[in-house]
Design goal:
- The protein is 39% helix and 16% strand.
- The strands form three sheets. Strands 1-11-8-7-5-6 form a six-stranded parallel β-sheet. A three-stranded parallel β-sheet has the order 3-2-4, sandwiched between helices.
- It is globular and about 55 Å long.
- The protein binds guanine.
- Guanine binds next to strand 4 and helix 6.
Length: 294
Amino acid sequence: MSAKIIDGKQIAADIRAELKAEVANLKTKGIVPGIGVILVGADPASISYVTAKEKACEEIGIYSDDNRLPAETSEKDLLALVNKMNNDPKINGILVQLPLPKHIDEQKILLAIAPAKDVDGFHPVSVGKMCIGQKTFLPCTPHGVVQLLVRAGVKLDGAEVVIVGRSNIVGKPLANMLIQKSPTGNATVTVCHTRTKDIAYHTKRADIVIAAAGRPNTITADMVKPGVVIIDVGVNRIADATKKNGFRLVGDVDFEGLKEKASLITPVPGGVGPMTITMLLYNTVESAKMANGN
Ligand code: GUN
């Protein structure tokens, strides 16, 4: 079997076209969705994510307030900036790029973001509402994964899903979304992590394997059943002297081996990545609509 590739770029482009039309319509009513972006320090991967997020905002007509702060920025100054954005009516969403430098308490910053502007879906209020199935901002990467599965026509109802990775940003919220009693949930979910005794024991019986471990080659062809659906959330930089920037991106799965055994698989890049940014745009547009009473 040779797997069909789930084209995240195309699915993301379809959703972005819908959002662009929606933003144009909001502008006719005098509403311009706006996002405040904060990057502390100069981590190369974070710079590249933030730049891509801002470019995507511009493309669909979302105003973005770009704030690149030095690594030495104090927690107090960062809190003050978040507070300023909380009170700025032009800003509908606040994005503080993670990870933050060690001297800043990440949870304290996330807690300071007004839940009404929490377009990353990381505030405990958003997380709590998600857990009990209330309408809220859903975190972008797991929301993007669910949208990829739905739009690729993968049946979630009753599916055996194995997620490898238990981060607050991906594994935990994704498990939560997929077990919700809803048309985009209703799956049976197992979460594997670094202390799981035998990951292959779980992945071998999965209909859908979602790799979010942050390590290349975490999932190989011998660990899955034929016809499995593979979603690769990993973004790992591997040194590569043949590339101009000195590295190439690989995911968490052995793509070459798995594409011979899976029925559907996401590539890296061009799979989950474009969806993460797209769901951020979606949340920002939703927030602008809510701030204006619809
Ligand atoms: N760092 C890695 N992924 C994300 C994300 O989705 N949002 C933010 N704010 N930081 C991240």
